[in-house]
Recover the amino acids of this structure.
């Protein structure tokens, strides 16, 4: 029986190059902070990796801070920038209504525990942040804003956000962007975007789990979350995870077949439109990542659809958060104007470098029945 | 068969799911999320509504080797069970929410969804048995009478029973725990759940007071003389003796008992022990777990509490009402309780008590 994986935005297979890199480095002895031969050997491969990742993302190597996850990088950026700006009397955090929980939750933590004020920038029905709203906000309260964090592309819909425009409107207010979904999928340059800070995660691009990166401009020396050896510019402590870092670098150095992935994704969309005429694509009119599509199937409930798909050997997801294993209505879709009911009838399918037309064909061989059964299960 | 195993995170439903798999069925495990905010209803591993319980259910499914999902039934549970519980109390009746949950959630919302998704039935860890006889499938007491749950299943229709699988009815609880241990299920020694799963503290009266308020009203004797005050009539139960706070003693010093709760006038009526005694009960909205009972008088047993005794009685139907007459008088029966008729170990049917005398 085939087992079809269409959840590459959640995590995607370790690339062969990354597997080779991590396996070989796991057998190498040496703490990269040690000064002896073993330590220097590890430090060398680690700094090679740092330079290579910097090249891929368009930053200076010295701007790369290794973390244990994208979530950690987001927390360092948002809290650290807020604290350093709070010292100048600025307390407003500006985020979008569609951020990942790794930004939403630290922002709300700052609000609850540190006295921050959080302002959410709304999005339009296409899932794009409203720049007019942002412009007015800057005009009215620009001098109160400590930090702005807007994701580069959304993890549920794949919709790409106008970060460059946002940065130019923001003036000298630091802007952070969570780019974990965008990295390698679409052109992404830290330098060209002009942001202060940017988050990456290895396992979204064929690297291992448990390694992330915060790109942070050299001029910013922000308070740390983890205190200890001060390994990463005193902003992040902890022995550097050399095997995962070299594997991240190996994965990031590979070409991502964006055009192929997009072709598969679009073939899938065409087939869905043909087989399930009332299904609709969220954010279809917007510029999106090549591999992600978010579809609403009216009259269904996503947890039932996921169960039926799983039984039919297809792994998909909603892309939204779970609370105690129960899917909440997606805050992203709600922000785009969905009702609770339609938000709860939506699934995310995401394709990756290893996806094939056979995957699309298999999903389409089961999806119409799954939707019909899912509708029957919620017809009451 | 293709079956959905409802897995609460307790030992019984875990063994039930394992037995269904062993019997050759294609089984998936489903944990019902019944509280919109799990911590709101209960914290700690005592009930069936916590994150820990859903984790325990997931680990049991892993050990058994079946797929596992969580179904959000919070809205159905709130509307069908919690709201009903409040409405019944505010109407002066004494409901049983477990029975309502079986009727409206486990063997209705879940079974309906299961069937629509191509599954044949729902497996639960209830202690009860079913048998196939000349009249089709029938519901029976479990072998372990001390754990028997046929009372809370008595509201199921034939159609619902046809979709219900109870793999534990032939085994004692002690043996189920031993079997769970043998199967490597971590929940083998998990304590039984008690009380009402959505009342966090077990303080039923307090929970009701928070939701229904505590309007002061009179406590009267049978002649209507006011002899005390209460803070919310629904916090009393028929037959209650303690905690009445009465200061006017009876002539002979004998204790008083709650005889009646009158929600419209917010009055609690008390009287002597012998005034609690009833011999006849009438129940509305009868449900039959087999052939319907007619006007012909039959002999059998009636049970009025989940783990109460089976009381010898005669029973018949008077129009839409089920009537049972006891051989021996019974002290304290509240309207709203379920009266369940048994023919030996077989559940004949049930009704909601609406009148006693």
């Amino acid at each position: 029986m085939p087992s079809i994986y269409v959840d590459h935005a959640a995590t995607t297979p370790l690339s062969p190059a990354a597997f080779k890199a991590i396996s070989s480095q796991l057998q190498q002895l040496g703490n990269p902070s040690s000064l002896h031969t073993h330590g220097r050997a590890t430090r060398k491969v680690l700094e090679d990796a740092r330079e290579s990742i910097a090249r891929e993302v368009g930053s200076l190597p010295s701007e790369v801070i290794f973390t244990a996850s994208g979530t950690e990088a987001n927390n360092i950026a948002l809290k650290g920038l807020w604290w350093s700006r709070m010292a100048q009397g600025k307390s407003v955090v500006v985020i979008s209504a569609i951020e990942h929980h790794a930004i939403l939750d630290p922002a709300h933590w700052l609000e609850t525990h540190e006295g921050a004020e959080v302002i959410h920038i709304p999005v339009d029905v296409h899932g794009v942040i409203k720049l007019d709203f942002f412009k007015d906000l800057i005009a009215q309260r620009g001098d109160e804003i400590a930090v702005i964090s807007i994701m580069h592309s959304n993890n549920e819909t794949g919709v790409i956000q106008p970060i460059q425009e946002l940065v130019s409107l923001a003036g000298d207010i630091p802007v952070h962007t969570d780019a974990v979904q965008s990295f390698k999928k679409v052109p992404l340059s830290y330098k060209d975007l002009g942001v202060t800070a940017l988050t990456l995660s290895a396992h979204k691009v064929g690297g291992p789990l448990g390694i992330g990166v915060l790109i942070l401009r050299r001029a910013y020396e922000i308070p740390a979350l983890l205190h200890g050896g001060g390994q990463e510019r005193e902003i992040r402590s902890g022995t550097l995870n050399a095997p995962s870092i070299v594997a991240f670098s190996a994965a990031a150095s590979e070409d991502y077949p964006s055009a192929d992935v997009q072709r598969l994704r679009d073939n899938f969309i065409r087939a869905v439109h043909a087989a399930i005429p009332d299904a609709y694509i969220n954010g279809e009119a917007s510029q999106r990542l090549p591999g992600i599509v978010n579809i609403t199937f009216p009259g269904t409930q996503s947890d039932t659809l996921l169960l039926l798909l799983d039984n039919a050997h297809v792994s998909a997801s909603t892309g939204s958060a779970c609370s105690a294993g129960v899917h909440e209505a997606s805050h992203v879709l709600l922000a785009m104007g969905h009702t609770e009911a339609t938000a709860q009838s939506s699934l995310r399918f995401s394709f990756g470098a290893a996806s094939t037309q056979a995957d699309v064909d298999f999903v389409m061989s089961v999806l119409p029945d799954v939707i019909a059964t899912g509708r029957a299960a919620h017809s009451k | 068969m293709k079956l959905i195993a409802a897995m609460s995170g307790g030992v019984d439903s875990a063994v039930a799911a394992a037995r269904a798999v062993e019997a050759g069925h294609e089984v998936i495990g489903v944990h019902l999320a019944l509280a919109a905010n799990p911590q709101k209803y209960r914290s700690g591993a005592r009930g069936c509504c916590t994150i820990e319980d859903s984790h325990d259910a997931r680990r049991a499914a892993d050990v058994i080797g079946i797929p596992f999902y969580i179904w959000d039934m919070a809205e159905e549970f709130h509307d069908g069970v919690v709201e009903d519980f409040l409405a019944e109390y505010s109407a002066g009746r004494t409901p049983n929410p477990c029975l309502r949950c079986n009727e409206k959630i486990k063997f209705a919302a879940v079974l309906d969804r299961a069937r629509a998704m191509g599954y044949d039935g729902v497996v639960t860890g209830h202690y009860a048995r079913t048998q196939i006889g000349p009249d089709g499938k029938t519901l029976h007491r479990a072998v372990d009478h001390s754990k028997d749950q046929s009372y809370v299943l008595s509201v199921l229709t034939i159609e619902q029973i046809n979709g219900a699988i109870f793999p534990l009815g032939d085994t004692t609880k002690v043996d189920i725990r031993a079997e769970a241990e043998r199967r490597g299920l971590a929940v083998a020694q998990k304590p039984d759940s008690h009380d009402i799963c959505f009342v966090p503290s077990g303080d039923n009266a307090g929970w009701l007071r928070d939701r229904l308020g505590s309007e002061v009203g009179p406590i009267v004797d049978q002649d209507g003389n006011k002899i005390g005050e209460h803070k919310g009539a629904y916090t009393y139960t028929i037959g209650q003796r303690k905690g009445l706070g009465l200061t006017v003693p009876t002539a002979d010093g004998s204790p008083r008992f709650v005889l009646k709760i009158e929600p419209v006038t917010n009055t609690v009526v008390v009287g002597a022990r012998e005034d609690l005694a009833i011999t006849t009960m009438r129940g509305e909205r009868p449900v039959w777990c087999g052939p319907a009972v007619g006007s012909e008088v039959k002999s059998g047993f009636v049970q009025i509490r989940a783990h109460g005794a089976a009381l010898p009685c005669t029973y018949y139907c008077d129009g839409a009402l089920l009537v049972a007459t006891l051989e021996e008088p019974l002290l304290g029966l509240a309207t709203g309780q379920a009266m369940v008729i048994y023919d030996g170990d077989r559940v004949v049917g049930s009704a909601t008590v609406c009148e006693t005398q």
